[in-house]
Design brief:
Largest sheet: 7 strands, mixed
Distance between the termini: 43 Å
Helix content: 25-40%
Shape: globular
Number of domains: 2
Strand order of the largest sheet: 5-4-1-6-11-8-12
Bound molecules: zinc ion
Structural class: alpha/beta
Radius of gyration: 23 Å
CATH architecture of the largest domain: Alpha-Beta Complex
CATH superfamily of the largest domain: Spore Coat Polysaccharide Biosynthesis Protein SpsA, Chain A
Amino acid sequence: MKAVIMAGGHGTRIRSVASDIPKPMIPVLGKPVLQYQLECLKENGITDVILVTGYLAESIREYFGDGSDFGMSISYFNEDKPMGTAGALHYLSGELEEDFLLLMGDLMLSVDFTRFMAFHKNTGADVTLFVHPNSHPYDSDIIVTDTVGRTEEYIEDRCGPDAAASGPVPQEDRRSRVMEVISKKADRSGLWYHNCVNAGIYAMKAQTAASVPEPVEKIDLDKDIIRPLIADGKVCAYQSTEYVKDMGTPERYEEVTEAVRSGLVRQRNLSRPQQCIFLDRDGTVNAERGFIRRAEDLELLPGAAEAIRRINASRYLAVIVTNQPVVARGECSFLELDRIHKKMETLLGAEGAYIDALLYCPHHQDRGFEGEVPELKFRCSCRKPAAGLIDKAADLLHIDKTSSWMVGDMTQDIRCGHNAGLKTVLVKTGMGGADGKYDDVPELTASCLSEAVDMILKR
Ligand SMILES: [Zn+2]
């Protein structure tokens, strides 16, 4: 299998870090970011690479040559004038005979590409987008998917054209602008979204590359090629918790450097066992308000976003597991529950925090409620304190349960954690353990999520 890497980027926004080198050559701890990509491809058995170059192409060619020094076979396609993120594919289509991988050359990443390509082949999609939650969804392109991962919509930069036209806006200003819009707009729900961002990694059928027209002007991969395919239902999204980050700003460049130094980039590769902090939802992340039936009633607890942001920067994944019997009772539809979670992800995103996954149990065993949904009324294996949700997440995300934690405000969370083989923290927010249903003793007790995260990270 081949990989095509778009390595023509200028790197204008990060001039303060490096000037006069192409973006993919920006050094991180003494090594160009592109070299990290090539090493990762090689680990996945992909050694046949085409580099699409443009800006200062010679410096890339001089460094990597024919790839033999790196145990790879590298060929080049040079754009005399920039053709956009897809234009070169028109000329390369003769060399691409089977499904291939397409990467943007300025991303720091460590990805299990074998797993990604297996997903792509399995769906039969023309294009599979690699998507993930990130710490700045408010200025990223958001991907909307249906429940089976088919991409339904592609929403550009949530700050809108006015933000783009006024040039780079400091991150803090952008955050507050997003918060302002969220809190003031009459139709607020339209602005809530799942934190699901296009990362800049694609699996593609050879025919899709062949369909790219000869570039008369720049052709944008996302806008001109992928969006029309979304309308035809031919694009899927692959959700991953792996480390993929662009270095578009000096701030992000520092984060990436630290993540490489600490080993986080490689640790998050899904070929390795992951460590996770499982979080209860109501009373742990958001304020306890009885059963939340409408998105309007969801409010984050003070400090929760900051605590989750620290999990995101640590070696742990952040995964929410929550019982939502309101669905079985007919008090909250799946659609409204989705709206609640969109609001939560939007509020977290505005503060630079995200959850890697959220799993819920919609079931309840006791029949006889007016308006209940009969098909959800049964004794399931996912309602906490059963371990079903955690077991499912562990399978999905290669989580090593023995080095993972459960944090919650109810004794049933603690019992659930123990049932799944996790260590546990009881937080004093929400119910603060007052449900008193189980006598499990938590390994740790904390006043709130922030303190719980402190305690776990210190161990
Ligand atoms: Zn269930």
